[in-house]
């Protein structure tokens, strides 16, 4: 194809997205669109999968059976989210094995938040309330993104997220209304998860590289700073309601703008964690690689069994 | 050893409705594909029946042929009831 023809196709393509038409896997798309989507959707899938690890830590130590089944169901949903997203990503011509390889080798990123440790039961509350809360803010606009399989996966994901956040908040609410030790545990979890949750919404707008292109392709509908503001505005009153204190002494409500103003975030810490130097980066990837490698004989055995059954059928047929 | 093949999953949400495509998954054989589809796509009573089909078995039309395939229908307005102008007094038609 000549350069001019490609340019022409790109214009038709952009116009299609501007009209809110969806792009489906077999449609022509610019190579950059394909690569950007493979990167974003797979990062998203990896985040769902790695996100199970910090919570998996607490399944056997949940305080009641009710909390245990809720946490199990939540984590199972996250596995599902990862699978919907991997399946959407594979429609772009990349294989599941390539995607896993990128995660395991450290080439692919996942959300930095999952590199923090889960030290107490209250962390299950804080994660559901804050981390899933921030994820929802990020994900809702993606339900109308331009790539069909991604948009459809996000619709399913968003339907399921709401329970995650509610069960988390309820854990925090129960602890905050409990003994002084329980309340302190909830406060401590909020103290540790607040800033990482704010940073989870991505670098500030002036440091964010992909924004303009992503806006055009509807991979992004609002800027990171706008999403962060939305998150702060909705979460502060929730903390007030259960008598917990946001660990930011500079936080104040601006009567004119009707928004909360909050302090500077530690972006050095954020980039350190992104680059692999967070408290649990190594632990998370090694748990993941370990599970994959130790499961190999099971996958092989299942495949050998399937092939044997298949050849038995063929033998009967002749 | 070979990787688990890809399967397309179709779910009937309730009797009276058609099976609808909802995504794909990997499984070593059809039985496992059905079990995985149940866990991945019907955790909240989204379905009463599941179909799984090996993705490799699906033949799909190509978007490049869309004009050839679908545009001929555009100029056949006579296939629609509104094409036939009839007096307003006419009832039940
Ligand atoms: Fe999720
Ligand atoms: Fe979640």
Please provide a written account of the structure.
Chain A has 318 residues and is mostly helical. Chain A is 68% helix and 2% strand. Chain A has two domains: 3-266, Ferritin (Up-down Bundle); 279-317. Chain A has helices spanning 3-18, 31-50, 52-56, 65-90, 96-105, 122-139, 148-176, 180-200, 211-216, 224-241, 267-277, 281-294, 296-317, and strands at residues 252-254, 259-261. Chain A has a two-stranded antiparallel ribbon with strand order 1-2. The longest helix of chain A is centred in the middle third of the chain and has 29 residues, at 148-176. The mean pLDDT of chain A is 95. With 93 residues, chain B is an alpha+beta fold. Helix content of chain B is 18%, strand content 23%. Chain B starts with 5 loop residues before the first strand and ends in a 23-residue tail after the last helix. A three-stranded antiparallel β-sheet of chain B has the order 2-1-3, covered by helices on one side. Chain B has helices spanning 30-41, 66-70; strands at residues 6-12, 19-26, 49-54. Chain B is built from two helices and three strands. The model of chain B has no long low-confidence stretch (mean pLDDT 95).
Could you provide a short overview of the structure?
Chain B: This is Ring-1,2-phenylacetyl-CoA epoxidase subunit PaaB. With 318 residues, chain A is mainly α.
